Amino acid sequence: MKKILIIGDILAEIMADSIGDGFLQPQPLTGPFPSGASAIYADQAARLGQPVAIISSVGDDDFGRLNLNRLAEDGVDISGVFVDPDRPTGSAFVRYREDGSRDFVYNIRHSACGYLHVNPAVRALIHSADHLHVTGPSLASPEFAALNLEAAETLRRRGGTISFDPNLRKEILPTEGLGDALSRMLVMTDLYLPSDDELTLLTDADETVGAVAELLQRGVRAVVHKRGAEGAAYFDAGRQFAQRAFPADEIDPTGAGDCFGAAFTSLWLRRMEPARALRLAAACGALAVAKRGPMEGASDLPTLEALVRSQAA
Asked: How many helices (H) and strands (E) does the chain have?
């Protein structure tokens, strides 16, 4: 099977136990949970049996060990993760509001995963990978953007493929140089995985039909539009179809989009028929929101297939 590489964040996540606005008063918290968009994606891909490696950094602390233990146990290649003796593992504190939106307090830029350590192990992973998955937050740092772009160009020269999920959190939108990095990555993208309004973000069109047509004309081979509770839609040069969301008792939506993306990309790399891959990815997203903690709902393929069968019955 083709090996996926992802370059990005590994975090410890701590969640407020109560619903409300922010962290302006003492309150009960639960965690830490292993987290980070890149780490969640890698873990879910590995749970599906897909070879996957992550390039990142963690601190020499319990939060770092928590993440590395979880990733390694689930089958992720962590040879490209640097253990930084001088900086702590990144963290994210999250609290949900009444309307389902979230408040975050991040420590990323000044944490271990805010710094790159490009060593021989990292170079070896770039040159051995078949597919690169990129997320928008990993392009918000000039150093991470440069390595992701270099890796994309290296893989493309070897006939490898690129998937790209903008995943643009409001905290990173003002980052200088982000727009240019997003545009450069899109030019090399084979599989594009935007959520909601991100579909039109990097196009001149302001509606679905025009945006998809423009993306395909630019060279994107397939677009998977994630629509949350409304499901998802698939587009390529000859097909388009929608997939409803599976019923789910939502407990924690953090990481569901990353799990969905990891599932679809892994199955797409296996050349699975897109409609079936989209159904299984939708099942993956539904299972991901049903447990507290961003990686705790990650599923293996038999579990996804069982959910799909139960909904078809």
From this structure: 9, 13
Threshold 0.85, pTM exceeds:
yes
Orientation angle between helical segments 256-269 and 274-288, nearest 10 degrees: 150
Spatial separation of the C-alpha atoms in residues 124 and 312, rounded to whole Å: 44
Q: Are 135 and 168 in contact (CB under 8 A)?
A: no
Mark the ranges of the chain whose per-residue pLDDT is less than 70: 169-177, 313
Spatial CB neighbours of 120, under 8 Å, sequence gap ≥ 6: none
User: CA-CA distance, 51 to 4, in Å (whole number)?
Assistant: 6
Give the SS3 label for residue 225.
Answer: strand
Nearest one of 89, 94, 85 to 13, comparing CA atoms: 94
| Tokens encoding 23 | 């962290």
Render pLDDT for 55-77 as a digit per residue (tens, 0 to 9).
999 999 999 999 999 999 999 99
Helix, strand, or coil (residue 12): strand
What digits encode the pLDDT tens for the residues 137-187?
888 788 899 999 999 999 999 999 999 998 876 555 556 667 788 889 999
Helices within the chain (DSSP H only):
37-47, 62-73, 120-128, 142-157, 178-187, 208-218, 256-269, 274-288, 301-312
Cα 175 versus chain centre, distance: 19
